[in-house]
Fold this sequence. Notes:
The chain has helices at 7-18, 56-66, 73-92, 125-140, 206-214, 244-251, 279-291, 310-317, 320-326, 381-401, 415-421, 431-445, 452-469, 483-507, and strands at 2-3, 23-26, 44-45, 99-100, 103-104, 106-107, 117-118, 144-147, 150-158, 161-169, 175-179, 183-185, 218-219, 224-233, 254-256, 301-304, 336-345, 348-349, 362-364, 449-450, 516-517, 529-535, 541-547. The protein is α+β, with helices and mostly antiparallel strands. The strands form seven sheets. A five-stranded parallel beta sheet has the order 8-2-1-12-19, sandwiched between helices. β22 and β23 form a beta hairpin. 54% of the residues are buried.
Amino acid sequence: MVIGAGGAGMYAAIEAARQGARVLLIDRSLIGRGGATVMAQMTVAAAVGPPGTDDWRFHLKDTLAAGRGLCDPRLASLLCEDGVECILEMDRWKVGWARDGEHLRAVQAPGHDRPRCVYVDFLNTGPAVSRALRTQVQRIGEPIRRIGEVMVTDLVVQEGVVTGAVALHVASGEALTIGARATIIATGGLTRLYRRNSASTNMSGDGYALALRAGASLIDMEFVQFFPIGHLAPRLVGMDPIMWDPFRYKLGGRLLNGAMEEFVDRWGGADGGRYTATRDRATYAITQEVRAGRGSPSGGAWLSFSHLGEKELRAAFGPVIDRLAANGIDLTRQAIEVAPIAHYHMGGVRVDTAMRTGVPGLFAAGEAVGGANGANRLSGNAITEALAFGRVAGRESAAAAARQDLPRFSAVAAKERIALLSSGSRTGLNTASLVAELQALMSTEAGPFRTEQSLVRAKAGIDRLQRKIGEVPPGDPGSPHDLARLDWFDLRQMLLVADSVVTAASERRESRGAHQREDAPDTDPAWTLNQIITLDSAGSLRLTREQVPSFDQEAA
C-alpha cells in the first residue's frame, strides 16, 4: 500500500510493481493530481550534464553545505547519486526535459556551484513530471490499483508490525480497513500548518502523525523552509505563488525594499543583483527589512524586472507573459510584491537508506522523509528526492511484502482504530475556524523566526486547540463529504505534528538554516546534532539528540 500519489508515491508504486508486487495506490485527491510535485513549476537538480562537466559528488557537496552540517550524508548521497538515473529514466519516459542538442539543458540555481538544474518548459516542470508518472502507472495497469478520495486516519500495528490501515472514504463517509504486507508513507510535508503556504491543501503532515502513532521516529522537525519570494500583491489568479523563482535567478530580478534599494547583502546574503542568496538568507533579509519599517506597502519586498525589456522576458518565458498580462501585471513597467511563504519541510520520518522506518512493514518516501536535507534544502532537490526515495521505497517494500513470516492483517486488530471513525457528535464544532486558528498561531509564533517566548505561546495555543477539538469527531458516521468531520481528523494529525515542530524548535537553542532563534542568533557547533522525536505509551512526545552520522566525502 502506498499512501500518497504525488511524485514519490507514484514512483514507489511503479517500482514495486516492476518488482512483482501488487500495489494499492491511494490518495486524498485524485491519483497523481494532488501533493507537491504537480504544483512544482521550476527546476530539478541532478548531475546529468555532459561527461566531465558535473558529477553527483559535486551535487552532494552543495547539498551538504546547504544543510548546515545536519544532513544524513547517506541519504543525501542516495538523493544525489540515484537521482541521476531517475532523471534519465524520466527522460526515457518522455517527460520533455528542455535540451541543448543531445544533452539536457540546465540552469544554475541558488546554492549550486554550476548549472545543474533541468526543467521542462517555462513553469510546467512539475505537471510534466506528474503526467509522465501517471502515464507509466496507467501502462502498468492491473498490478497497480488506484483509489482516490481516501483519508488514512491510522495505521494498524500487530505484533510490532504494520499490517495495514483504517481510512475514511471521503465521497461516501464509509470507514475502510485495508490490509497490506508493506506500507509506504508518501504523503508529503506539513506546509498547511501555516497561513501562507505554497502547497496543496492536503499537505498537513498527516504522514508524520501516522508514523509517530505507529511507533516510528521523526527527525529534524524544527526545520521548515520558507520560500522568500512568494507572491503577495497584486492579486494573482491561476498561477503558483512561488513562480517568481525562475524569473529571479535566470534573469536577475532585483529584490528591493520600500525605498527601492537592494538590501540582501546587508543581512548576510551574497546577492549582488543576481539570485545567489540561499532561501533562508533571503527570507531573513526580507523579514528584517519589513521589521525595520522598510517593507513594501503590503508588508513584503518589491521584485523588479524593469531593467529588462519585453523581448528579453518573452525569450525566457514566452506565453507566461500573457498569463501575467491577464492578471494585470506588466513586468516591464511595474514591480510586484513578494514575501516569505511556507514551502518545504526538511524534517520528517526517520529512515535508513532502504527507506525503512524501524517499524517492520513501514516505509517512507519523498518529503515525508527527514534527514537528507539537514537544516535547509538545496534548491531543486525536492523532486529529485521524491523520485529517488520513491524508487528505493518501492523496491525495498516489494521485497518486504514477499516475506512469508509477517503477521496477516486482522480486522480484530483494527477494531480500536476504526472505533474513532464510527463515532460522532452533534457539537456543531467549527473545525474550519480551528484550522485557521492553528495556521495563524504557527505563522505568528513558530514561523521563520522564533523566540523562547513565542514558542511557549505556540505550545499553549496547541494545547488549547487540542482541548477544543475533544476526543470525538463532529457529525454523523457515514456522512458523505462532511467537511467539518474531515477537518476534525485533519486537526487531530496537524496538532500532533505542530507540537512536534514546536517541541524541537524550543529545544534547539541556536540559529541554523531554516530554524532562526532571534534570542539565540548564532550557530553553535555544539548543536551539530539531530533531534529525534517519538511518542510514548501515554501519547506524549519524547525528544532525544544524536550525533549526525559521519561520512567520508572524499572516499565517496
